[in-house]
Amino acid sequence: MKKGTFRKILRSLKPYGGLLALTVLLALVNVAATLAVPYLAGLGVDCILGAGEVDFDRLYRLFLAIGGCIAVTCLSQWLLSVLSNRVAYHVLADLRTAAFRKIQILPLKYLDGKAYGETASVVISDAEQFSDGLLLAFNQFFTGVGTILGVLVILFVMRWEVALVVLFVTPLSLLTAKFISTRTYSMFKRQSEVRAEQTAFIDEMIGNLKVVKAFCHEDENEEVFGEINERYRKCSLKAVFFSSTTNPATRFINAVVYAIVALVGALLVIGTAGTAAAFTVGNLTSVLNYSTQYTKPFNEISEVVTEFQNAVACAARLFALIEEEPEVSDSGNENLGRAKGEVKLENVTFSYTPEQKLIEDLNVCAPAGKRVAIVGPTGCGKTTLINLLMRFYDVNGGSVTVDGKDVRALTRRSLRENYGMVLQETWLKEATVRENLCMGNPEATEEEMIEAAKAAHAHNFIMRLPEGYQTVIGDEGNLSQGQKQLLCIARVMLCRPPMLILDEATSNIDTRTELKVQDAFQKLMQGRTCFIVAHRLSTIQNADLILVMKAGNIVEQGTHAELLARRGFYYELYNAQFAE
Q: pTM to 2 decimals?
């Protein structure tokens, strides 16, 4: 178990110190009431003096006392469970909240570098496993330790010889539990990692099931899933098998302790009979019960330790997420306000990973109100350029400026409020059509909203919905991909930002509607700085400047006519689409 992780667990428990103290107190009350019963039972055995000689009056009082102890045990155990659940689930809620908050402020490079299912597994599955281990520790660890210490004290008071026998065998139980627990941590840690990998794969395959079926990739997916599942089976089997040896091993030691105590106790009964310090049959009954109670917590504690190893392994992954470096704060940065729209990239160098270069010494100047198109083959850096403009990533070298101000000196919120984006991938929230359209401009009037919808050619199909603009829709609703994209276009038209980013904005729309939407875009783009990413070169022929990218560099730039006249890389791309 890593000490650093354990210290973090203790820090997470600190706000609930009062409840934990009460939990310990209830555990002590529970132990005291439980340990009183064997002693009283032993006294009850001694009430049988001989054949026909039974002290029923004393026996009746002892029965009442035993009943009272059992009642206290039940009540304290119930309260202990209530408080343990309260602490464990509050800690679970705190850690999940902290993890979710951290995800909100993590840089995109963290989320882009991990499968979404893996991150979800940490927040959901690992947090749940940690909470279960914590709950088990609260319910059994405190009472177990209290029972062991209490029994030792009572045995030394009753008969030191028996106490020494029990104490002599104790290290054997401890060493057994220690030997097993130190080996189970790494096994449970590996199990947690493979489970996250499996969750990520399932999430990806279910989320992209249409693509899987389109390419008839079911058999290959089954093979990959089978391989991951087999690794999960093997590591789970090792972890569970090794941890399950704890109980039988400690039970064997318990049986040895019981046998030795019974032998020593019986010899003491015979040897001390008739003396002032006689060790009675009732005392032997009590110490045998105590020896059982003494060894039983070792089983429980060893089980707790095994489960807690799993919990700590899960907690380590959860704390690793919570402690990830957040996005660089921009709280002291300048607010951009309403931008004019002059954008420059000067000597920009950027790569997602140090070992793989992407953009080097890039220079772009987009005057305010001009339309800049970005074209090139897949992987040339078009989307990366958009990420830098929006400051989803910061440049490694050089600068990106808006109206002469470096974007790193501006707040991200004020920068992004000046951009309107329509991407190839659409996004709608679970809300009414109106709420989706007015997301970027909540103060828009009904007339402005309908005007934007008409300009995007979305008004007609919206009116065919069951409740028109008040129809509740979502990203997984019954709308087609093209209809979703028209809604996203209408949303941007309603915001009317000074700068636009259109990344294959009409890719999911039929040709006839695209011509109409392109006309609407022409009106929207007037007086606005626009960055248009397109594979279909027919959509960017009217751009003021076309940047042709290849392998992270701008190899050509100019108007459509100028680039064709040069007969360079753009000429090849254009002819590939429109060859006579």
A: 0.66
Average pLDDT over residues 329-353: 86
Distance CA 69, CA 57 (A): 19
The CATH number linked to 272 is: 1.20.1560.10
Regarding whether 460 and 349 lie in a shared domain, the answer is yes
Range of the domain at 442: 343-578
Cα distance between residue 224 and residue 237, in whole Å: 20
The two structure tokens encoding residue 75: 């009540």
| Judgement on whether residues 382 and 315 belong to the same structural domain of the protein | no
Residues 303 and 444 in one domain: no
Give, in order, the Cα–Cα distances in Å from 140 to each of 84, 85, 134, 262, 488: 10, 13, 10, 27, 55
Which is more confident, 248 or 170? 248
Among 9-18, 312-321, 531-540, name the one with the lowest average pLDDT: 531-540
Please indicate, yes or no, whether residues 101 and 197 belong to a single structural domain of this protein.
yes
Distances (CA, A) of 45 to 109, 156, 271, 279, 526: 73, 21, 19, 13, 100
* pLDDT tens digits, one per residue of 151-179: 888 888 887 877 787 777 777 766 776 67
The phi, psi pair for 355, rounded to 5°, reads -80, -10
